[in-house]
Amino acid sequence: MLKLHPVQERLLFLLKANHESPLTVRELQEELQVSSPSVVQHHILQLEKKGYLRRNPTNPRDYQVLSDSPDKLVTYLNLYGMAQCGPKGSLLDGDPIDRVPISTKILGFPSSEAFMIKARGDSMQPMIKEGDLVIVKKTSDVNDSQIAVCVNNGEVLIKKIQRIKDRNRVRYNLISLNDDYQPFLADENFKIEGIVRSVLNYTN
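Given the sequence above, the corresponding C-alpha cells read:
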C-alpha cells in the first residue's frame, strides 16, 4: 500500500464517511481547508492512482472507497456461458467457462461483485450481439428498464426488466431490445443474477 499525503488521508476519510450522500468538490475543499477545487481534484486523482479509490467515469460522485484493501489494477472475472444454469438453479452455481483479465478501472464497482457472461442470440440487439462479453454486477435487486442477467424456467437470459403489480405480489415482464421478440412474463422461480454494467463487443 502506497503512503498517503495527510490531505489524502483526510480526503479518504471524508469520501468514506459521506458515501451515501457524496460531497461536492467545493464542499470537500471547505472541509479540507485547501486553496482551490483543483487541489481537491489533484488529491482525488492521486487516491485513484494509488488504488484507494475507484470512480465511475460517467459519474464522478459515484465512487467506491478501497481504503481497507486497495484493488489490483487487473482482476480476473469468471466468464459464464448462457447454455445452462448451475445445479441450484443459479448461473453462478455453475462452472465458469473461462476467467478473463479486466482492468479494474473500467468496472466502477468492486471486482468481487463482478462476473461476465458470453451472450448468445440476437434478442438484445443492437446493444448486445451474439458472442459479446457482458460485464455484470451481482445483485438481486433491479429497477424498471434496467438490463439484467436472469434465470427464468431454468434458462439464462439477458432482458430489460419491467415490474408489474399482480394483486399482492410483484411479477416481472421480460423485454427484448430486438422488436422481433415479444415481451413475456417471468415464471414463479424467476431469479435475477445481476445488472448489466457494460458490454465488450465481439468481432470476428
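The longest strand covers residues 155-166. Try to locate this feature in the C-alpha cell string yourself.
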